[in-house]
Fold each of these.
Amino acid sequence: MIALAGFTQSAVNPAGPQSAHIYHLWHLYLWICVAVWVLVIAFLIAGLTRRRPQPQTPDTKLRRSVITATAITIGILFFMLVASIQTGNALATRSFTKPVSIEITGHQWWWEVHYQFSQPDQEVVTANEIHIPVGRAVILKATSQDVIHSVWIPNLDGKIDAIPEHVNTIWLRADKPGIYRGQCAEFCGMQHAHMAMLVFAEPEPKFERWLADQRSGARSSAGAVVMRGRQIFENAPCVLCHTIRGTGAAGTTGPDLTHLASRTTLAAGTMPNTPGNLAGWITDSQRIKPGNNMPPINVPSEDLQPLLSFLESLR
Ligand code: CUA
């Protein structure tokens, strides 16, 4: 599989307040554990190398040492417990207005993304790639259509389980613009490893432009080849599983393709969105991602190019 460039995926490079809380806790744990390890090894080496004491060490001295070491251990564990609870409280604290509300639904093996607004005509549905405004809070509501998945965007927040018939909610905020890769963090079947997402944190005006673009229906160009491609698409089994708003395709089993060409990757972050990769995916997705729910599509060779032209025009 081709490596994708330009994104970061790291829990030790926080880009927002939530991941920073987790990062600080991780740092605290790291240095406490390092100190404990160094002390234990130092005592071990001292014990191994010093000259043997008298055959019978007085019982009281040994007992005092064991009690002291136990007390120190309990003290350290208690301190770590308190630090962990404080971090949990900080993560749960909500102090923001006008958040962006996004419902993210796990599927084997891709993410359905639904931007929620009070007016239905403002809502946006997309897949695998999330755009968020820098500096504004985002409420993520995670659920699943099939098995248990887990949403994890380490630069922005901790993990959240995506459970069928249940909604788990977290909030996050990106304070630095960037592309943050997220990953399903709960084993969910054969292609669990190929269930990624990209989060594009961008300045508010750019985000609003993206949102407005996504709200519109399909805007393919009107060339003859593209129109032919659209006809091929509408007569193919594609329409049973995919939606392209503005065409007859209204399936909901697979990702919404209305603005497919505006996405940078295919198959949940598996490969770059190029005509060659898209052709490979349509004709034999099972070779790229074995076990996925899309059957091989038997496209006559003369139809493939117009079909690709149509799909790649869906900006
Ligand atoms: Cu979805 Cu692992």
Amino acid sequence: MAQAVSVVEVSARIERAATLEELKDIRTEWVGKKGRLTEEMKILGKLSPDQRRTRGAELNQVREAILSALNAREEVLKDRAERQVLETERVDLTLPGREPISGLLHPLTRVRRRIEDIMLRMGYSLAYGPQIDSEWYNFEALNMPADHPARDMQDSFFVDVPGLVLRTHTSPVQIRSMQRHQGRLPVKITAPGLAYRRDDDATHVPVFQQVEGLVVDRNISLGNLLGTLKMLIHELLGENVGTRFRPSYFPFTEPSVEMDVACAACGGDGCRVCKDTGWVEVLGSGVVHPTVLKSGGFNPDEVSGFAFGLGIDRIAMRLFGLDDLRLLYQNDLRYLARFQSGQGGSLS
Ligand code: PHE
């Protein structure tokens, strides 16, 4: 009988089905709405009552057999799929955990601390002032009255409150420190901190770091300043680094001196770091102007002093051999981490 053969054939196909999809195809082909068996059943009506009864019973048997074979195989395949999922998704408890990233000091912080260290060894104490300061501390007290053209040297960020400014340098801490000393000598402070200017290029960022130095005592001279600066820079960058002093102008010092170090990026040939001069300016300094001593409550006829302001970022650029300062401020850990292992620079 044709159907008997079919059952054997279909059962064999069902047994061979390797996936649930394959099984579903067989189900549709045979017992689906338009399946082969379903079609057979539809024509039962055209047979005589006798034929219909035998044929009907036969078809029902076949249908039952196919359905139970399909269901049995489905069980097996589902079970297999489940076991496979369990197998592949098993959590391996023996894997070592992910190591958490431990914090690192920012390269600029390490440079700042190194400068502080040298200053402390030279007998200075640390001093601090506010980053939002009054125009008086930032300018007036430093001999820069409101209409003084020297204010243009330090393009400033003003805040909404009149009379306040984001300090353009750490020099206002000079005044605050002298005031705190109330005339007692000597004043010997160093003031690290952030300063703000409307600058933005490869060697200037709008928020930058300085270290201020101030000494006030009897008989302090330009010689003391130059000696101190040489010592500081040599401690910081090495005995062999090329340095030079240039006369300069700051309203709060007289005379004023800028210190340059030989450009490490190009070795003196000229490049974008040193603006083709072979030298990079690292600090401004000078003998404290009498007006500034007066602002701090000292008598310029009795005492004198020297002051300097060092750019931490410039020193960092040199120590790490960078040609763009801005990268240090983007806080990309992949970049900053390079400076930890010594690969990116020489800071120990
Ligand atoms: N404050 C000056 C600047 O930021 C640097 C400086 C400090 C110059 C102290 C002289 C004395 O440019």
Amino acid sequence: MARLRKGLLLVVSGPAGVGKGTVNAALMAKHPEIKMSVSATTRAPRPGEIDGVHYFFKTKEEFDRMIGENAFLEYMQVFGMNYYGTPKSFVESEREKGNHVILEIDVQGAMKVREACPDAVLVFIAPPSLKILKERLVGRGTETQESIDVRTATALEELKMLPKYDYMVINDVVEEAVGEMEAILTSELLRTERNTNLIMKLTGGETV
Ligand code: 5GP
């Protein structure tokens, strides 16, 4: 039997340091049917980052080859130096299986995904304030002062894009943010346009 409902494509953006990774990891720990897409990037791995887990680390030549093969749902040069892209095949195969896929990507990438996949759900994770965001970046201890300044300035630009998203979740208390993400998933799954197969089944194929 054909699957009644395709999995959701959830695009999650938010400034660096806002805790997107923490919220998404906690959400996935509760929901094995939610999978994280692993992006490809040309940036160097940070300490502790594993190829194929955090990113697929690529040379510029390898990345260019993937572009040529139309292997990306979207790709982008972020912070003016490194390339990041979402491989298409994983997203499509998981959604066909009925699993939900999270893309943790930046604002411009999110807009490209909206164009390529109009049924994507765009969620922005915002900090309680810009001051708290900066404190979190400093506390992470992996960024240079220059990188913190660039990322704080970028954060303000990203926050201005909030109205282009479908939902906003403020990450103050992680468990609450996770609960709000679950509410978004539940609501989206109940939308009639995502349940056309079920409606057809109920009506014997007849709708007004
Ligand atoms: P980082 O270097 O801190 O891991 O990520 C830098 C930025 O790249 C973040 O804003 C992150 O969301 C974005 N990013 C990661 N993967 C992708 C991707 O596949 N596509 C796009 N457009 N942005 C990405």
